[in-house]
Specification:
The chain is built from 8 helices and 32 strands. By secondary structure, the protein is mostly beta strands. The strands form 7 sheets. It has a 6-stranded mixed β-sheet, with no helix packed on it. The longest helix has 23 residues. It starts with a helix and ends with a helix. The structure holds 2-acetamido-2-deoxy-beta-D-glucopyranose (5 copies) and copper (II) ion. Keywords: Metal-binding, Oxidoreductase, Signal.
Length: 640
């Protein structure tokens, strides 16, 4: 007899039976397991001591078993929970074996590694966050990271960062979360109610990444694995029930399995009560894709980007996280039901993003069930440390240095590929306020620019008057010939070091100006940071010019800049600037590339010092006004 229970039982068992796949009988991943955070290591008595051993391990994702480079055999690495001022002493053991020498600015050195604490305000010198260090096969290195006493509490991450194998190793799983916890007394009651240390059960740490990407349009794990010469490929002697090898099955766009994993899980289920608010700590650890996230049916309140709190939390129906970026968001689903957290392109936001690659698919399911609870979203965030002072209204005379960083479709930064670890493209004095302009000469695609050592504040999206890169395609072995043109298609007189006038395709040419207009577009489009927010990775949209400022404070040493599309970085889209002791800055606002000035087209171009007015206008004025009022009130209160 068919009872409801037995029918339900059958329905529930049936999918499990049909998905008993393995490497010789592959199928799509089912996902849906209960969300599980990664194992955590919490600091105590001012420090955390940890060994991270890099070795080859079996990684099993549902039915698929692959061999990957991992930390301590896990996938991903452990989550570190620290406090401002802590020591993070890490012994990095590289157990990998010898490898052939590779070509500079190509995928190489699968067995060389190092460690980057992405987003921390930290010394870039040994034994701390010096990413130009190489920990070779068989070597061990003792990192002694000293977190700044004023380190902003937030969501950060750590990952391997050796130029040439960054994509391969991060996509392999050499990454983990690094959370700097808030002092309970610094948080409002609403924020404390969804945060560690007292309400850790409300935190949802999510290291997101397409770690098992075998097929796709751009660089995939499989394509880079082949280029880099990794021997731990799938066994191609096993023919699957589909009649092809597992490798052929996985790399076929039609059959290939794919998932933007959450802490190494495929599309996990997060269970919440109606009305409950949780603090999602999201890291986009995927090597190349942007995330444009939505949770239709639930409410999202933005708390922080890149580990820096926004001044006032605000609600938004999407979350944009470029590769390398983070977002802390308070999430609430009011009514019982099943909701999807998914990422995908949205034509409404395209003017701010261009054709930059965005992952498409479900990332997690939110199952809302049980008794309703009543909670309130935070309306205030903790005060920021002084290294993150608001620099929007600093006087022109207080700007202590200016610089331009130009990205483009070729794997160049400032019109050159990465050269070497001591070629500093710009030296700037420590303890100065820097004003830099990030420019993208790519007419179609945005590139997420990451700066090490400290965050920068977004000041303005300027009208674009820079150069447009034309040509340069060619793939492996470096770009083909390319040249810079102005927006009307006339050849620029400011070119690049390897410019060859004989290789010009045609002059004039037609420039695609579809994505011009970042100075006048709706500021609420996903690809834009709000004016005044801080970032350590910022998408620079196609044909964009963005002014940022930062306090070059506390640390002397190399500030590495690179595109966080990690295949671009490995291919040369990286450079080094240097924060020098006072008085040693180089004078020029531009460092020339073979006698040409990045960021410009004509020799007569003026450095973009006068900013376009792209600020949120009145909203901004009101904020400043309210801030002034608030400061007055605080001053009065302190007075009594
Ligand atoms: C980390 O290493 C430094 C330098 O060796 C040492 O002074 C410090 O005590 C260590 N911290 C911890 C928590 O062990
Ligand atoms: C890397 O190290 C592994 C052992 O850990 C070794 O099997 C492999 O041959 C080495 N070389 C390359 C290119 O992967
Ligand atoms: C700001 O200062 C720079 C350098 O001193 C100068 O070139 C520029 O004209 C000034 N801009 C404004 C708006 O005063
Ligand atoms: C680094 O590159 C620069 C620029 O090409 C060059 O002048 C310098 O000699 C190089 N240094 C080393 C140590 O190779
Ligand atoms: C920018 O626009 C706002 C509002 O329209 C105005 O209050 C402000 O003075 C303008 N700033 C500049 C530098 O033009
Ligand atoms: Cu890029």
């Amino acid at each position: 007899m068919w009872t409801t229970a037995s029918v339900l039982g059958l329905l529930c068992v049936f999918p499990v039976l049909t998905t008993a796949c393995d490497n010789s009988d592959p199928c799509q991943f089912t996902g849906g397991q209960a969300y599980t955070p990664t194992a955590e290591r919490t600091s105590s008595n001012g420090g955390l001591v940890q060994t991270l051993t890099v070795d080859i391990s079996d990684v099993t994702i549902e039915w698929l078993t692959v061999q990957r480079r991992t930390y301590n055999g896990g996938f991903p690495g452990p989550t570190f929970r620290l406090k401002a001022g802590d020591d993070l002493n890490i012994t990095l053991v590289n157990n990998l074996g010898p490898q052939p020498a590779g070509e500079h600015n190509e995928f190489r050195d699968p067995n060389t590694t190092n460690l980057h604490t992405h987003g921390l305000h930290i010394s870039p010198l040994e034994p701390q966050d010096y990413v130009l260090l190489e920990v070779g096969p068989g070597e061990t290195y003792e990192y002694k990271f000293e977190l700044n006493a004023d380190q902003q509490a937030g969501t950060f991450w750590y990952h391997a960062h050796h130029h040439g194998s960054t994509f391969f190793q991060v996509a392999s799983g050499l990454a983990g979360l690094l959370i700097v916890e808030d002092e309970p007394s610094s948080m409002s009651a609403e924020l404390a109610a969804i945060s560690c240390p007292n309400n850790c059960n409300k935190e949802v740490p999510m290291l997101l990444g397409n770690f098992i990407e075998y097929s796709g349009g751009g660089a995939t794990f499989a394509s880079v694995q082949e280029d880099i010469g990794d021997p731990f490929t799938l066994d191609d002697t096993v023919v699957t029930t589909a009649g092809v090898t597992l490798n052929a099955y996985l790399t076929d766009q039609q059959t290939g399995v794919s998932a933007y994993m959450v802490n190494g899980q495929v599309r996990p289920t997060i269970t919440m009560q109606p009305g409950e608010i949780r603090r999602f700590r999201m890291v986009n650890a995927g090597p190349s894709d942007m995330l444009l996230l939505t949770i239709t049916g639930c409410e999202i309140t933005i708390l922080a980007y890149d580990g820096v709190y926004v001044d006032t939390p605000y609600s938004q129906d999407f979350i944009f996280i470029p590769t390398g970026g983070r977002c802390d968001a308070a999430v609430r689903c009011a009514t019982a039901g099943t909701y999807e957290m998914r990422s995908g392109e949205d034509t409404a936001h395209e003017p701010s993003i261009g054709d930059t690659g965005i992952y498409g698919g479900v990332i997690a399911t939110i199952e809302v069930t049980g008794a309703s609870v009543s909670m309130n979203f935070p309306t205030a965030t903790p005060a920021k440390p002084s290294y993150l002072d608001d620099l929007q209204n600093v006087a022109n005379s207080s700007i202590g240095g200016r610089y331009v960083v130009e990205l483009g479709p070729t794997p160049f930064l400032n019109r050159e590929q990465f050269t070497n670890t001591t070629y500093f493209r710009y030296n700037f004095d420590v303890d100065t306020i820097q004003q830099w302009v990030f420019v993208n000469s790519d007419e179609d695609s945005g590139h997420p620019l990451h700066m090490h050592v400290t965050h920068f504040q977004v000041i303005a999206y300027n009208a674009y008057n820079g150069a447009v890169t034309v040509g340069g395609g060619g793939g492996g072995g470096g770009p083909g010939p390319f040249a810079y043109y102005d927006l009307s298609g006339n050849l620029c007189d400011q070119q690049h070091r390897d410019f060859d006038p004989n290789a010009i395709v045609a002059d004039p040419i037609t420039v695609d100006t579809t994505y011009l207009g970042h100075d006048t577009n709706d500021r609420n489009l996903a690809g834009y940071a709000r004016i005044g927010e801080f970032r350590d990775v910022l998408l620079i949209p196609p044909l964009a010019s963005v002014t940022v400022r930062f306090k070059a404070t506390d640390y002397i040493g190399p500030y590495v800049l690179h595109c966080h599309i990690l295949n671009h970085e490995d291919e040369g889209m990286m450079m080094v600037t240097y924060s020098t002791p006072s008085g040693q800055a180089t004078a020029s606002p531009w460092e020339s590339s073979g006698g040409h000035n990045p960021g410009t087209c004509k020799a007569t171009d003026v450095y973009p010092d006068i900013l376009q007015n792209t600020s949120d206008g009145n909203k901004h004025a009101v904020n400043t006004w309210l801030t002034a009022l608030w400061m007055l009130m605080v001053a009065c209160l302190n007075h009594f």
